[in-house]
Amino acid sequence: MCSHIEATLKEEQDVFSVVNQLHPTPAVCGFPYEKAFEYIAQNEGYDREFYTGYCGMISNIAENILDFYVNLRCMKITAERISVYVGGGIVSQSDPESEWQETQNKARTMLSVI
Question: Do 36 and 30 contact (CB within 8 A), yes or no?
Fold first, then answer.
């Protein structure tokens, strides 16, 4: 899935402050945003690190041209461990078991490369 967003910044804004205001997106944080963000901060118990952050390329900083995407699957490798970050979207119609299985499948895909 990809959404292209194009906008003209106000002169007093910079592109990085806009990106920071968009993070984390409601798609990976939840809705209503403030309640979901507070719940995650109090209950998740670990740092998401790169997961759900933005990755991308600065094409032309002078013209504020960026190509970023939300990082929905990633792996961190250190000398001591390998950490895999994946997730699933829960909505009112979700079947918890199916969502859990989808999350497991995403993790297996990531783990298959090592």
Answer: yes
Q: Where are the domains of the chain?
A: 1-72, 75-114
Pairing of strands 65-70, 74-77: unpaired
Q: Is the pTM here over 0.70, yes or no?
A: no
3-state secondary structure 3-54: CCCCCCCCCCCCHHHHHHHHCCCHHHHCCCHHHHHHHHHHHCCCCCCCCCCE
> Kindly report the CA angle at 79 between 85 and 110, in degrees rounded to 5?
30
Q: Mean pLDDT: which of 19-23, 52-56, 100-104 is highest? A: 100-104
pLDDT digits (tens, 9 = 90+) for 77-103: 999 999 998 988 778 898 989 999 999
